[in-house]
Structure formats: C-alpha cells, structure tokens
Amino acid sequence: MDTAFNGEHLFPGHLGQFFIVLAFGSALLSFISYYFATTSHDKFDRSWHNLGRIGFYANTVSVIGIGVTLFYIIFNHLFEYYYAWEHSSKTLPVYYMISCFWEGQEGSFWLWTFWQAVLGNILIWRAKSWENPVMTVIMLSQTLLASMLLGVEIFGYRVGTSPFILLREALNLKESTPIFNTNPEYYKNYLTYIKDGNGLNPLLQNYWMVIHPPTLFLGFASMVVPFAYAIAGLWQKRYKEWIQPAISYSLFAVMVLGTGIIMGSFWAYESLTFGGFWAWDPVENASLIPWLVLVGALHVMIVFKNTGHSYITATILVLTAFVLVLYASFLTRSGILGESSVHAFTDAGMFWHLVVDVVLFLILSIVLLSIRWKELPSTKKDEETYSREFWMFVGSIFLALSCFHLVIVTSIPVWNAMFGTKLAPPTDPVKHYNIIQASFAVVITFLIGFTQFLKYKKTDTTRFFITTIIYLVFAALITALVIYVTGVYKMHFVFILIMAGAVYAVLANAKIFAEALKGKVKLAGSAVAHIGFGLIMIGALISAGTSKVISENTTGDQFGADFAAAKNDPRENILMYRNTPVQMGKYLVTYIGDSLSSPNHYFKVDYKVIDANGKVTEEFVLKPNAQANRKMGLVSSPDTKHYLLSDLYTHVNMSNAITFDEDAQADGHDEAEDDKKYEAPVTYTLAPGDTIPFREGYVLFKGLGKVDHIQNIPIAKGDVAIGAKMEVVTHGKTYEAEPVYMLKNSNVFDFSRKVEEAGLKFRFTKIIPDKNKIEVIFFQTPPSQRKWIVMRAIQFPYINFLWSGTVIMVIGILLSIFRRNKELKTV
Predict the structure, then answer these.
(1) DSSP characters for 96-148?
(2) 3-class DSSP assignment, residue 42
(3) φ, ψ for residue 595 (rounded to 5)?
(4) Predicted confidence (pLDDT) per residue in 254-304, tens digit
(5) HSE (CB half, 13 Å, CA atoms) of 601?
(6) In what order do the strands lie in the sheet with 753-755?
C-alpha cells in the first residue's frame, strides 16, 4: 500500500532534525574534549583543546541551522509540522511569527541553547586560561539542553521533543488510537483540509512578547557563566581567581534577567486584564527566585574581593543560583504547576528529563564543594559590625531567605507529588506574598541606604551615626510628604516602612553619586543601580497601593453568571451603550464605535474632561481590543493613556459587538444576511448638499468622486467606479463613508460601506444623470440592537517611577560592568 501523504514538505523537517542531532553530538564532543583538555597533564598538547573548539563551533552552526529551518517552516505556513500548526497562522504578521518560536517548549529550549552558544563564543574570545574548565561546564549544559530537542525514543523512553515532528505523527502520539497509521489511505490528503494553523495565543500578540522572552532567556543562559567559573575554580583549585571574572558576568546576568522580569511585568500591565503588573503567579516567582539569589551572590563576591571574607557563602550562592534556574525550568515545563499557574507549560513527557538536569548540576556542585571544603579560603577574624562587608553579607542572607520563602510556597505542588500530601497553596496568594516578601524588602531597602555610609573593614562610628541619622530624618520627612500626597497611608504598615526604606536608599545613594561626579567615578555604578531599585520600589508601592477603579458600578448589574465566573468583579465594571455618555470620575466617557483589524476587534472609547463652564479641557480616545478566540473565549487587551504622573488603564470584558465569526466577516460575507441586522432600509434620492436625518444625527451627501481601487477587484480600461462621499455627524463627531457604484463589463455592482460608530450602512445603487442625483439605500441599527460594552477603567498614579527606575538600574549595572571589566584588564 502506498502510504505517502500528499502535499507534505519533508525536506525542511529532515534538515532541521539533522541539525538537532548535530547540535547534540557536537555539544557532547566539545564537552568531552574540553574535559580532557582540562585534565591533561601535558600543557603543551592542545589537541583536545582544539577538538573542543571544533565541536563548539559545529554546535553553534547547528543551533543557528535549527532556528533558520524552524522559521522557514513557520514563515511558509507548512502546517504538516505540528509546531507550525499549533503555534502560528497565516494571519500573523512577521514579528508575531518570530514570537511563535518561544510559545512552545521546543522553541524556548532552542532560544536558551542559542544564547548559550553566543555566550560560549564570547568566553572562547575572553576566558583565556579559564577557557578549558569553564567551557567544559558550558558544553555540559549545552549537551543537556540539546537533548531536550532530540525527540527520539530510547528503550521505550522518549528523550526530548522535536519542533520538527509532523502533525500526523504528533496526533498519533496524542491519540489513544493512531488514526493516521490505521487508515493511511483515508488520510492521504489530510493537508487539503487544513486551511490554517491554531494561531498564536492572543495574549502573546504584543510587541513586548517579541522582545521579553529573548531577554529573559538570555538572562537564564547567562546564569551558567558565573556557575561555570565557580565550578572551574573549585575543580582547578584556583579558589580566589575565579571571583573577579565571575563578578562581571554576574552583573550582566543580574541586569539582563532583571530587565526580562520587568519586561514581563510591563507585558502583563499592557496585555493582561488583572489590573496590575505583578500577580505572584508561580511562573513569575520561578523567574524571580534565581535572580534574588544571584543578586545576593554578587554582593558577597564583592565583599570577598575587597576583604577576603565570606568566600564559602559567595561560592554556595553562585552555585545555587544556577541550580535554581534549572529548578525554575522544571517547575514551568514539567506540568507540575498545571493547576496552580495559567502560564506554565503542560507536561510534554519530559518530567524526569528535567529532574535529571537539576539533580546532575546539584550533585556536581555538592560533590566539588565537599571534596574541596577543607581547602576553601576562610578568615579567622570576624567582620567588624560597623563594616560594609558585614551588612552586605546580612543583606545577601535576607535575599536568600526571601528566595527560600518563594521556593517553599511555589513548590507546594512538588511537595504534594513527592510526599503524597494534599497541602493547599495560600487562598489569597497576592496578600500572602505581599506581606511576607514586604518584610524582607523593608530590611533590604534600609540596608541599601545605610551601607553606603560604611567603609570596608572599619568605619568611623561617630561620623556614621551622624550621617545616617541626618539622612533618616530627611527620608522620614519626604516619606511623610509622599504618603500624605499619594494616600499610601491607607496601606498596611509594612508597606509604609518599605516606602521609607526606598526613599532612604535613594537619598543615600544620591549622596554617593554626587561624590562620584566629583571624582570617585568607580562608585557611580552601584549608586545609580541602587537609586533605580529604590525608584522601582517607590513606583510599585504607590501605583499598586493607590490605584483606583473609576468605572464604579452603582446600578447593581451583575452581567450574568459567566461574567463573575471569569473572575470579573461586577462592581468594578460599567455597562456602556454606544454613543451614550457616562460620567466616570472626572471623565465623561462615551463608547463611540468599533473597528476590525483581523483578528483584533477594537473598541473606541472617548474620554472628555469638562470644566465647570462646560468647556472641554481634554479629550482622547482609547482603543482597548479583544479577540473572540474559539479556544479561550473573549481575550481582552487593555489600552492605556500615559500621563507624566499617572496612567489611565481601560479594558473591555464583555460586548455584543464582537462575535466568533469575525474572521469570516473580514474576508467577505453574504450582503443579504448582513442587511437583516438593520431596520427596514429606506431609499433616498440625493443631490449634492442634501441631508438624511436619523435618530442620533444627520448624514450629508457631499458629492461624487472617482474610485481607483476596490478591495481585490482590478479596475480595467472601460470600467467605471464612482464613490458617493457621505459625511455622518453624530454626538458632536464627524465620520466619513464612501459607498461605491461600479460598471464592469456591462454589469452593475455596488459595494456597501458602514459607519459602525453611528450604526449605519449605505448602499449606492443608482445614478440619475439627467437630474444630477443618485439613489442611496440607507440602513440603521434598531435601538433594541444597540451595541454595548462592559468596561473597566483603573487609574495608576506614579507608575512611571517603576519603569524609569528600571532604566536607571540597568544604566547603573552597565556602569558597574564597565568598571569591573576595566579592573580585569589591569590584573
């Protein structure tokens, strides 16, 4: 029997799978070669070293080959491949096709391997005497990551999942009955029935999701570098030497991963509808956990570099940070969080594969530490209480404790799976995390402040206390003013303490930055980074603590059981009929219409501020959008008005203006069926300047004009296409419409045009040349079918402190990286 399936393009998949196998094999070759190059006693024999490089370069080429091949499949809509069918569609613009890469597990693993390959090239260029041991660790990690993409079966166990698996193969694996295998003749032409792919998750169709995942995975990938230096230092007994290069790479990892986390917050703020930027979702926590530990590790490494104290703590924290990256990957990819997070991947059969990845690097760290423990540098003398290193050490411990709390609570599903328990996560996770993590944040913010007045090894205590108290008093006064102006006093007392600590941190580091401008340039980086962090805390506290819902529902409308089931609060949502103004706070708000840019349906919401004299002092239109997604229901995305000191955030949770058939409507529909949605049409004979009155305004016929383009219909020589220029005036606004009358090959066609904002449709059906008039059929939506939306609007004060603080923090870390790199060159 001929089992070939018609229309399949098999070569790209075979090529992509070849690159995957090559990536795995070359990574394994490079790992083994670098290992023997490190352990070789003949320092002049570079054969293993050269072979390690050859394997690495082959791995880099193969990783790029995987990416290029996968993009080719997605870009050309080869839906015979499961990954393209599951994550993309023909309607996606190119930049969202790029996002399809990392929507699936396989694509995100590829992204991780790509960044690790890039970092490996940098290390070969810069690592010098560290290249062999460091690259051994890097290529071990690269080998394990490449194995995640293999998608091969060994002794009945599937190793990894390939992005190049065919749709029919994937469905056979998923179905209890492998339909394609049992009746291949019947399904031979299955591709003729696949018109499009499933498409990208509507929540990911945002420009932040084009740049947020690459940034986040660069952060994850870069965490392996300080880990590799720490392992290499223990392995080669170069205990102190690894610290200095590891500091630069740790700064880079902290900067990039921190930026990626904030980008995720901005995406959540702009695209999700929970009304905020951080929800303590387990997946959010998973990205934050290793970042906190590496920040602590970074500060302890700096302590060791300057004083010789806390070596063991620095080493343990660096090793732990990378192991926690792997553990975070396990949490989000194994399916273990399936019931506790909406963002986690489902189980793709890699549970134990991911466990092995975590356990391998954990055991490697523990074994090396145990073997070298007695040889590790230690100091007999304790740190002075009034020294900077002592309190930096304390701060790092608090960061580790903060991380420990996040790990314990986020991992409740893991504990239940391991021990058969039925522990329940916190009933109100946001409140739980906010209060406990805020307690750690109080300590950290104050430490960021007063450690700036301490010196390494020993400090003049009198001067320290005088300076500290002066700045504390200033911070208390400014905090009191901020609390009074913003209304933060209504928050829990612990958040007020964080505010005080953050203000104190900004003031103390501003003093250091001022000194840096006078000549102590090396202090600038840390001061700027700390100022940025303080502003992040201030912005987050004020915006989250004083945000106000202005769409207050006082009517008692509940909008149906489904509305509340979707976790919408009816008291915070208001029903708005089109062209019916509603007062919301200081704004007079009107839902004025819709527009469709497939697959997004945009709702136009007009905001006005009117003074006591009735004068409009401000006006703008927000366009929140939604998609009627067959898998996810109505998926809404907000639109935001950005002011200097606040944001006005608006999204639509419900509407009768959007249907699940909009894609079909966008491509064309039955005109007669569409006519039934309107009242009985009225035919008007109009001359230029004539008007048509209707319930909510009037229509002015301005005249005729030649039309050069009609949808996809070519206008040939001898064809005539004329548009009737109609001006619709309603509720103080003016809209244009131009229905078209066409003569083509002696046949008459007309093309209707709508003004959705006014609920009108026009058809231009006849020209009466001897009277200089035209015939227009006028349609109007009945009052009973008026379009409406259920909308939520929130005001976020001072949130720009959060976003600007992020930029300032990144600038500060960059300055620190430049400083550390300069120190490396002088060693």
Answers:
(1) HHHHHHHHSHHHHHHHHHHHHHHHHHHHHHH-GGGHHHHHHHHHHHHHHHHHT
(2) coil
(3) -145, 150
(4) 999 999 999 888 888 877 766 678 888 888 888 999 999 999 999 999 989
(5) 25
(6) 682-686, 773-780, 760-768, 753-755
